[in-house]
Write a structure and sequence with these properties.
The protein is of the alpha+beta class. The protein starts with 25 loop residues before the first helix and ends with a strand.
Length: 180
């Protein structure tokens, strides 16, 4: 009896592709936050780049989203725009809401800090626009370092539905969806 030759030309088996994570609900978001506090989120600048529209908000200490606040902010097309800044560790941020053609917009800079990390940011300019035309523009003073607003980044998923979750300085949780 002859022994069967071992086939060595086949590639090694590959693990199945990772499935994109769906946006978390309240309890899942709190679990992700606990993990992020212990281990860090691993998020980097490249993970944040994009135009994020606000989808859900949770009040401080709540595991249920605030339906009214979320609906109001979605109706105002609340969004957070994040772009690469002039250096590798700085970001350009825009935060805006719209009421029809009228837009209230804050623009500034941000940076990632720490292992979790925190997205520390400050706004340098406030604009009121109508149909893209600037009606009013005001400079804003940068707060002292200890008073900077921040988002404690929890998790993000760029594939599939694309989402990002964070807790703000005031204690509320937010879930954004990535616009394509």
């Amino acid at each position: 009896m002859k022994a069967c030759p071992i086939v060595t030309s086949l590639p090694p088996p590959q693990p199945p592709p990772l499935m994109p994570l769906p946006p978390p609900d309240g309890p899942a978001l709190l679990e992700l936050e606990d993990f992020s506090r212990r281990e860090g989120s691993g998020l980097q600048v490249v993970d944040l780049i994009g135009r994020w529209r606000l989808d859900q908000v949770w009040g401080k200490g709540s595991s249920r989203p605030s339906s009214f606040s979320a609906a109001l902010l979605r109706g105002l097309a609340a969004r957070l725009e994040i772009a690469q800044g002039t250096t590798a560790d700085h970001l350009r941020l825009g935060n805006a809401v719209n009421l029809g053609a009228l837009e209230l917009r804050f623009e500034g800079e941000g940076k990632l800090q720490g292992r979790r990390p925190l997205l520390m940011f400050w706004f340098e300019r406030l604009q009121l626009r109508l149909g893209g035309r600037v009606l009013l523009e005001r400079p804003l003073a940068r707060p002292k370092e200890k008073r900077l607003p921040f988002f404690a980044l929890i998790a993000a998923e760029r594939t599939g539905e694309g989402w990002m979750a964070a807790r703000g300085r005031g204690g509320g949780l937010a879930l954004w969806r990535l616009e394509t």
